[in-house]
Amino acid sequence: MNKLQRQTADKSDNASTVATPLLDSLESVEALRRLPVSQLRQVSDELRAETINAASVTGGHFGAGLGVVELTVALHYVFNTPEDRIIWDVSHQAYPHKILTGRRERIRTIRKPGGLYGFTLRAESAFDPFGAAHSSTSISAALGMAVARDKKNIDRHTVAVIGDGAMSAGMAYEALNNAGALKSRMTVILNDNGMSIAPSVGALTAYLKDLVKARPLQSAADIQRALAEKFPEETSLARPDTTMFDQLGCTYVGPVDGHNVEDLAAILTTLRNGNNGAVLLHVITEKGKGHPFGKPQGENYHAVNTFNPLTGEIDKAQAKAPAFTKVFAASLIEEAEHDPDIVAITAAMPSGTGLNDFAKKFPDRCYDVGIAEQHGVTFAAGLAADGLKPMVAIYSCFLQRAYDQIVHDVALQHLPVRFAIDRAGLVGADGPTHAGSYDLAYLMCLPDFVIMAPADEAELKHMVATSLSINDRPSAFRFPRGEGVGVELPVRGSVLPIGKGRVVREGSSIAILSLGGRLQECLKAADDLAARGLSATVADARFAKPLDEDLITQLARHHEVLITIEEGAVGGFGAHVLTYLAQSGELDTGLKIRTMTLPDRFVAHGKPDGQYEDAELQARHITNMCIGALGETKHLRTAGTGARLPR
Q1: Residue closest to 68 by CA, chosen among 36, 98, 39
Q2: Residue 128 predicted with pLDDT over 70
Q3: CA-based Rg of the chain, rounded to a whole angstrom?
Q4: Alpha carbons 433 and 429: distance in angstroms, whole number
Q5: Helical packing angle, 40-58 and 69-78, nearest 10°
Q6: Which pTM was predicted?
Q7: Fewer CB under 10 Å: which end of the chain, C or N?
Q8: How far is CA 328 from CA 399, 480, 567, in A?
Q9: How many CB atoms are closer than 10 A to CB 478?
Q10: Are 304 and 59 in contact (CB under 8 A)?
Q11: How far apart are CA 351 and CA 118, in angstroms?
Q12: Which residue has the higher pLDDT, 566 or 220?
């Protein structure tokens, strides 16, 4: 007889009024499992309160965790974690999981330098068997672990928890298709809260809503009876109540109330003790349940700044300049007012990319494809093939999910799909999983691809206009997270000459060639060098591809040292500048050239300034690089050839 059968569940609301705190006494998940099931309600209430209090201090992903408090408690109560594997899809809902698994004392360090990571991390805890911060990977990983268990003949359970719109991604169905065929024992929990960051979209969302309407919430007894009466496998597709998940070879169970922790514990115990191959448990939850704010959850509290847990008042920093994302959205709207062929595409992030503003203005010209970056890119290719002007707005770290589509469906066919790549460079507390480190390297190697990077928000407006003017090949512009630098904005962007940079400050000995958001740091470095008697030219490349070969040649010929700077990984802009200089023979003259990139390692989470300090891309690092390179010449000089650069 299992533990739950030996215990009597007390489902009364009075369970949460017990005076003695329980969470404080849970030094481990083993202590949680020693509790009677009647006390799980109180544990859940205290865990939700602790999650709210911790998030009020740290900010961060908030709503998703509050929605799975009861599920988290039930999972660790029933399964023998960490030996049993629980894989949290995306894992931004894992704050309660971290609190229960020995990290409560450090939970207020989450997302801070040197503190806990905001997502699951294998190196952080044995209770995090798989790291994740992008969506729709959990079922594939869980299936791999289930097959590994079977190969090694180990007695272990594997559970994948997927939700927040992640079922809209094709990878989830690839995994279910494989799981249904392999028949390895595993449990997939579909956490259905009707949300990704924004409300979930697409036919699947409607299908799940219809499932819930057609089927009343199931109790533990209902589930036990349904599994006992399950039709033979060969006739299951003929059943009138079969679901798409059954047709994929998984046993569908549910829907069940995701906030009834006692029932969840009983249902999970039934599934744990069964041998039903792949099972999908459909759990209905409320994202942000119990939040202290006045407004409904919606997408307001997916991620939050620090706040007062009693009043719900969110701390807001005063913006000194408009955010790059806002400038992009406003610029796209301005261009779309003049061109009815412009359409916009987002992958489940209308607010994060600024396209919610575009959608308000042009609701029939904005497409949210769900968490489906691969589809979104090829969808845009189809739009471009038949004469529309698609703008795909997507974070750099998520665009990499659709790389084959960029190569095969867009670049190879020279289709004029435009990519607005948000969150380029380092992004702060979300850490390396969300850093925009690689898009320059993985896009610059593609033939005939125009790639731009604005140094400020005014340049961004020009690049939006420029990208929309390119009708014979794909183009992209990448811009950083956060505020601009405070420059005056033009009324409307102007089309830039393709592949042409600009000199923003003239000097003689040292040339600093910047691509993107480090230009202000380069100018600070030039001031520092001038104070030391060293004269520096600062140029803004604007275009990573095509390179401004004339500008690069002039910088190389009229300076002793050339430094390139970018907010991207090794193999990007600087590498291509080096290749050009080598092939053109300019390196044969003894020119000293150095490339400054993000380091060849993953930069840990923290505040953006701290990350750029870690990456050695601040003004003082640029100064030191210049002095170091200049000092290696035979004669340290403060004046170069004296020739003026062409503007």
Answers
A1: 98
A2: yes
A3: 28
A4: 10
A5: 130
A6: 0.86
A7: N
A8: 17, 11, 19
A9: 30
A10: yes
A11: 21
A12: 566
Enclosing H/E stretch for 573: helix 573-584
Report how far residue 464's alpha carbon sits from residue 479's, in angstroms, rounded to the nearest whole number. 11
Whole-angstrom Cα distance, residue 597 to residue 572? 8
Q: Which of 111, 112, 401, 592 is catalytic?
A: 401
Sequence-ordered list of residues with C-beta below 8 angstroms from that of 338, at least 6 positions apart, any chain: none
In which band, very low, low, confident or very high, does the pLDDT at 47 lie, cut at 50, 70 and 90? Answer: very high
Map out the domains of the chain with their CATH numbers: 16-288 (3.40.50.970), 324-480 (3.40.50.970), 502-630 (3.40.50.920)
Provide the 10 A C-beta neighbour count for residue 493: 24
3-state secondary structure (DSSP) of residue 622 = helix
Contact 464, 328 (CB under 8 A): yes
Calculate the alpha carbon distances from 22 to 4, 32, 65, 140, 310 in Å: 19, 9, 20, 36, 22
- DSSP letter for 104, please: G
How far apart CA 557 and CA 554 sit, in angstroms, is: 5
Confidence band for 294, pLDDT divided at 50, 70 and 90 = low
**Cα–Cα dist 407/387, whole Å:** 20
Q: Is 103 a catalytic residue?
A: no
Label the pairing between strands 303-304 and 60-61. antiparallel
Among 431, 489, 491, 435, which residue's Cα sits nearest to residue 457?
Answer: 489
Distance CA 139, CA 89 (A): 8
Query: What is the mean pLDDT of the segment spanning 616-643?
Result: 71
Residue 608 tokens read as 């953006």
Partnered with residue 281 across adjacent β-strands are 189, 253
Q: Is 457 a catalytic residue?
A: no
- For 271-310, b where at least 16 C-beta lie within 10 A, e where not — what string? bbebebbbbbbbbbbbbbbebbbeeebebbbbbbeebebe
| C-beta separation of 389 from 368 below 8 A | no
Residue 294 CA to residue 288 CA, distance in Å, equals 12
* 3 state DSSP class of 243: coil
Confidence of residue 302 (pLDDT cuts 50, 70, 90): low
- Render the burial of 506-539: b for 16+ CB within 10 Å, e for the rest: ebbbbbbbbbbbbbebbbbbbebbeeeebbbbbb
Catalytic entry in 373, 459, 560, 566: 373
Q: What is the DSSP string of 292-350?
A: --SS--TTTTSEE--B-TTT-PBP-PPPSS-BHHHHHHHHHHHHHHH-TTEEEEESS-T
Count of H helices and E strands in the chain? 24, 19
Element (H, E) at 395: strand 389-395
Identify the active-site residue in 287, 389, 423, 545. 287
Give the model confidence (pLDDT) of 453-477 as tens digits: 999 999 999 999 999 999 999 999 9
Length of the chain: 647
Inter-residue contact 136 to 127 (CB < 8 Å): no
d(CA 131, CA 87): 8
Per-residue pLDDT band at 211 (split at 50, 70, 90): confident
DSSP state of 136: S
Strand partners, 513: 539, 564
Query: Cβ atoms within 10 A of the Cβ of 25, count?
Result: 11
pLDDT attached to residue 234 = 42
- In the residue annotation, 401 being an active-site residue is answered as yes
**Tokens matching residue 123:** 């190196």
Cβ density class 127-157: b for 16+ within 10 Å, e for less: bbbbbbbbbbbbbbbbbbbbbebeeeeeebb
User: Which residues are 451's β-sheet partners?
Assistant: 476, 545
